[in-house]
């Protein structure tokens, strides 16, 4: 009676929609992710002139002073920026999670706005304030006081700290709010004072969250290009070294740019692995039986605490406000004039209208693709328990870890050959937005899909719907909120993308961030401010939409 | 109305054998229940029939046509899910209409059939509601209506009542059986609740460790369990140690010889508590066995009394009996006899699924 499935029926069975989707997704990830990253990786092991396989490029980086200094600088500003972010983020989280803070929602909203505004805007706003011609510098200069300018390592560290602390803050706050209060009560009961309870019990319990926030800060700082590029002035990090190596090697093989980039990636990966190792030993399951309630405190301590919270987000937001303010100052060419007006906006429309349309067209096209692919990919990850789905899940980590410069150079080496050349096209920028921001979409839809019982899709199939039709009629409507949140998050991060666009753009495909970057370097601060404001408003509207649509508002951004 | 024939079905999850050599034959219109403890493979078997995963070997035929190679959506075997699986974004009406739309049923007929199905599960006034406006019991009625409306060849149900509270479970159980009978649908029902299985089914199929232990009508399962596992899983049972002696099988607690030859494997006797009588004196009837002991525990459980008697060899025998004056007069510690009919004693090989010794 027992018959083995015939070969043909076995084949037909494998031809189902999800197997086809798996193949398509793998093909896309292969072409847009694996191939570019590997080609970059490969180039770093080739001799620039002879093409022979060699380790010389790495030897050069680790022996030449120029590169070693860059490596050290990168670790220095990354490390201190992360430390700074923890030092201001953890107390802020503790205050908002454990005490009644008036306007707590505003504090976290502002922190999120800080998070999503492009880092180079912050850098450039600080130049407006503390640059060689900054208004604070000039103000003190009038009294003959020379205050230190923002340029150099300390400026970069300051911007990183103020830019990335929200990651630490939001993750720690979330952890603090879900720590079982009984642990702390037990410590108090055993004789610990409030301080020693915090350091001996609470802090260790939220350490995993703090370290996750810190590692995000670190990885982003390492890869950040805009801040050191604008504020560095001779202070070079690996990302600026890679970029200038790339532009000077133009035409030739980007060997050194690539080697430096690979080292950046290596640092991020090592940091992540180390953090995972440390965390592996510290998994605390917590039953949410006794959730902490915010205490109310009185008097001076209460005032100081409120002052701290407002001050931190206030200072972090300040650059943004300066940018918006500046955009309404009258200008004549690059020179600011007295009075307010819309001259900068008029210049945007006359000089760089295509930057706005490019930004929106590229980001929106990428986001539509991201929404489609992330729904498919999250289905594969959540519902299909195969090795391939597991591999796709792991691959989704890669774009987080690969600096924009690396993947952009990878795109150039992969998509430019003798018989076809995508560089300089809109397509290549859309593709890079797509692949770099895909994980945001996948994460949002995956979280959504995990809440949905698989039996719903099975019921649809059982009632006669094909797998594709069950997906379209049942799964997609149910994960739609996740798709929208994911799309908004990818949009926010795509429209603010600088480092890889800078390598891939041509005059016809410049985007807002690129134009801002160029304007800042050209001293066109009014133009840069107006473009930045447009970018900030677009971003802000998306953040508002995420807030409206998402249950876990703050969690969506970390 | 279709017959189902399952032969030689085997299913592995890696090294785990979830189903081994399953052979099942279900007649048209039968209510066929898979009963067994958690993890025995009931869900796996049901989902294999539905096509949610593929068997490693074996065939599944409905009305003689093999379906085991068809994808799930082409099998036409409607399923009712344990967690209801009512589409949360569709109204009750649209939920029930889902399968008919897949089958491209014309609008007029569709709405008539949906209405009829909703009437059958007493939800005719809830057509416009959304699922979150329904109780668990009502949601499961939607699940049922959605499955019966497509008039598929077989109806599959995986513990459809297990998420409901006890009272509703009993109510819905009777209703379900009535609807099934009135439509004459061949039904495969999964449960771990033996009472439910016995009360509803035409045939109960007891499973353990992916193997079918016995498939028979409820009374036969209860009265003539095919092996020790069935005897212990369905209904209460006393198990008493047997010794293989040269002259035959010897029941240790009663210190008596049974009419059975000695075996080369260990044996054990089973006797239902309701077949054990407790009395002050030993029985003189040679067709009966008397086990001397002391009363260890007495509990009144409504209509009946449950007594535990500790035999002299330490084994405890349970008895469930009507509260006769003799029983009522007994107290804990009293000496007594547990009396059983020799014919009521069933003998099994003493392994987990030890076979019945005839
Ligand atoms: N997807 C799966 N992967 C691996 N093992 C499984 C899977 N599903 C079920 N099993 C195993 O198969 C056996 C039968 O499971 P199941 O059919 O769910 O039992 P039941 O429904 O009778 O409780 C169990 O041992 C279970 O652990
Ligand atoms: Mg089950």
Explain what the structure shows.
The complex is a heterodimer of chains A (558) and B (358). Chain A has 25 helices and 2 strands. With 558 residues, chain A is mainly alpha-helical. Chain A has 2 domains: 40-325, MetI-like (MetI-like fold, Orthogonal Bundle); 356-551, Orthogonal Bundle (MetI-like fold). A two-stranded antiparallel ribbon of chain A has the order 1-2. In chain A, strand 1 and strand 2 (335-340) form a beta hairpin. The longest helix of chain A is centred in the N-terminal third of the chain and has 34 residues, at 65-98. In chain A, 49% of the residues are buried. By secondary structure, chain B is α+β, with helices and mostly antiparallel strands. In chain B, helix 2 (92-102) packs parallel to helix 4. Chain B has helices at residues 42-50, 92-102, 107-120, 136-148, 166-183, 194-200, 218-223, 228-233, 325-328, and strands at 4-13, 16-26, 31-35, 57-62, 65-66, 77-80, 154-158, 186-191, 203-208, 211-216, 238-245, 248-251, 256-257, 267-271, 277-279, 288-301, 304-311, 316-321, 335-341, 346-349, 356-357. In chain B, strand 12 and strand 13 (256-257) form a beta hairpin. Chain B has 2 domains: 4-233, Rossmann fold (3-Layer(aba) Sandwich), CATH 3.40.50.300; 238-349, Nucleic acid-binding proteins (OB fold (Dihydrolipoamide Acetyltransferase, E2P)). The two termini of chain B are 37 Å apart. The longest helix of chain B is centred in the middle third of the chain and has 18 residues, at 166-183. In chain B, the strands form 4 sheets. Chain B has a 6-stranded mixed β-sheet with strand order 6-7-8-3-9-10, sandwiched between helices. In chain B, strands 13-12-11-14-20-21 form a 6-stranded antiparallel β-sheet. Chain B has a 5-stranded antiparallel β-sheet with strand order 15-19-16-17-18, with no helix packed on it. The chains are: A mainly alpha (558), B alpha+beta (358). At the A-B interface, helix 21 and helix 22 of A face strand 4, strand 6 and helix 2 of B. Bound molecules: adenosine-5'-diphosphate and magnesium ion. Residues 13, 16, 18, 36, 38-44 of chain B line the site of adenosine-5'-diphosphate (ADP).
């Amino acid at each position: 009676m027992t018959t083995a499935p015939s070969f043909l029926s076995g084949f037909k069975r494998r031809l189902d929609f999800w197997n086809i989707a798996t193949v398509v997704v793998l093909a896309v990830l292969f072409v847009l992710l694996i191939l570019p990253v590997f080609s970059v990786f490969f180039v770093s092991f080739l001799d620039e002139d002879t093409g022979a396989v060699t380790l010389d490029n790495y030897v050069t980086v680790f022996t030449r002073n120029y590169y070693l200094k860059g490596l050290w600088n990168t670790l220095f500003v990354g490390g201190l920026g992360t430390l700074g972010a923890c030092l201001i983020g953890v107390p802020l989280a503790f205050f908002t999670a454990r005490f009644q803070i008036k306007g707590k929602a505003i504090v976290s909203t502002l922190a999120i706005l800080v998070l999503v505004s492009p880092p180079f805007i912050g850098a450039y706003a600080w130049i407006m304030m503390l640059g060689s011609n900054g208004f604070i510098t000039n103000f003190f200069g009038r009294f003959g006081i020379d205050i230190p300018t923002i340029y150099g390592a300390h400026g970069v560290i300051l911007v990183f700290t103020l830019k990335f602390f929200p990651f630490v803050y939001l993750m720690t706050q979330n952890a603090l709010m879900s720590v079982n209060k009984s642990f702390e009560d037990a410590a108090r009961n055993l004789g610990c004072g409030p301080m020693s309870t915090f350091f001996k019990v609470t802090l260790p319990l939220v350490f995993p969250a703090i370290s996750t926030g810190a590692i995000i800060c670190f990885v982003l700082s390492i890869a950040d290009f805009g801040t050191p590029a604008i504020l560095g002035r001779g202070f070079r990090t690996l990302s600026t070294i890679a970029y200038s190596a790339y532009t000077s090697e133009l035409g030739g093989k980007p060997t050194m740019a690539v080697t430096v980039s690979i080292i950046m990636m290596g640092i991020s990966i090592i940091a992540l692995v180390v953090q995972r190792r440390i965390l592996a030993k510290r998994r605390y399951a917590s039953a949410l039986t006794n959730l902490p309630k915010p205490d109310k405190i009185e008097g001076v301590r209460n005032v100081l605490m409120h002052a701290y919270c407002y001050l931190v987000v206030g200072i972090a937001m300040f650059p943004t406000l300066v940018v918006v303010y500046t955009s309404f100052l009258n200008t004549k060419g690059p020179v600011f004039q007295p009075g307010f007006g819309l001259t900068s906006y008029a210049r945007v429309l006359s000089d760089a209208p295509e930057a706005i349309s490019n930004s929106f067209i590229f980001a929106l096209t990428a986001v539509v693709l991201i929404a489609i692919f992330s729904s498919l990919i999250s289905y594969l990850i959540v519902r299909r328990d195969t090795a391939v789905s597991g591999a796709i899940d792991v691959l989704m980590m890669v774009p987080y870890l690969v600096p924009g410069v690396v993947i952009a150079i990878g795109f150039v080496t992969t998509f430019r050959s003798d018989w076809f050349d995508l560089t300089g096209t809109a397509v290549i920028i859309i593709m890079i937005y797509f692949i770099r921001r895909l994980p945001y979409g996948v994460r949002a839809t995956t979280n959504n899909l995990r809440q949905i019982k698989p039996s719903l899709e099975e019921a649809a199939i059982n009632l006669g719907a094909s797998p594709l039709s069950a997906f379209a009629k049942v799964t997609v409507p149910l994960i739609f909120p996740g798709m929208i949140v994911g799309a908004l998050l990818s949009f926010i991060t795509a429209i603010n993308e600088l480092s890889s666009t800078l390598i891939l753009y041509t005059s016809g495909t410049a985007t807002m961030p690129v134009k801002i970057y160029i304007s800042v370097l050209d001293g066109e601060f009014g133009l840069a401010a107006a473009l930045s404001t447009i970018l900030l408003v677009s971003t802000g509207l998306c953040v508002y939409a995420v807030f409206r649509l998402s249950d876990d508002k703050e969690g969506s951004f970390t | 109305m279709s017959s189902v024939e399952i032969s030689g079905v085997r299913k592995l999850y890696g090294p785990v054998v979830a189903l081994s050599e399953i052979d099942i034959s279900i007649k048209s219109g039968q209510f066929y229940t898979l009963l067994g403890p958690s993890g025995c493979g009931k869900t796996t078997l049901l989902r294999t029939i539905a096509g949610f995963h593929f068997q490693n070997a074996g065939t599944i035929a409905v009305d003689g046509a093999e379906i085991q190679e068809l994808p799930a959506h082409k099998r036409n075997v409607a399923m009712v899910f344990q967690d209801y699986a009512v589409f949360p974004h569709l109204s009750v009406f649209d939920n029930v209409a889902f399968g008919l739309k897949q089958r491209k049923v014309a609008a007029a007929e569709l709405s008539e059939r949906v209405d009829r199905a909703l009437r059958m599960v007493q939800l005719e006034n809830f057509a416009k509601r959304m699922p979150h406006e329904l109780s668990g019991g009502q949601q499961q009625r939607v699940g049922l209506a959605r499955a019966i409306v497509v008039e598929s060849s077989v109806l599959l149900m995986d513990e459809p009542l297990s998420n409901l509270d006890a009272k509703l479970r009993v109510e819905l159980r009777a209703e379900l059986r009535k609807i099934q009978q009135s439509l004459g649908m061949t039904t495969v029902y999964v449960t771990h609740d033996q009472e439910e299985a016995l009360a509803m089914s035409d045939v109960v199929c007891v499973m353990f460790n992916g193997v079918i232990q016995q498939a028979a009508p409820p009374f036969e399962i209860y009265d003539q369990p095919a092996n020790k596992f069935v005897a212990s899983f369905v209904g209460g049972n006393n198990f008493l140690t047997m010794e293989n002696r040269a002259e035959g099988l010897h029941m240790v607690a009663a210190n008596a010889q049974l009419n059975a030859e000695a075996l080369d494997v260990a044996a054990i006797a089973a006797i239902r508590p309701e077949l054990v009588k407790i009395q002050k004196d030993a029985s003189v009837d040679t067709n009966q066995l008397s086990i001397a002991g002391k009363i260890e525990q007495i509990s009144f459980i409504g209509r009946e009394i449950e007594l535990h008697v500790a035999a002299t060899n330490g084994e405890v025998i349970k008895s469930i009996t009507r509260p006769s004056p003799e029983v009522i007069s007994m107290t804990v510690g009293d000496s007594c006899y547990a009396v059983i009919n020799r014919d009521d004693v069933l003998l099994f090989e003493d392994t987990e699924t030890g076979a019945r010794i005839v």
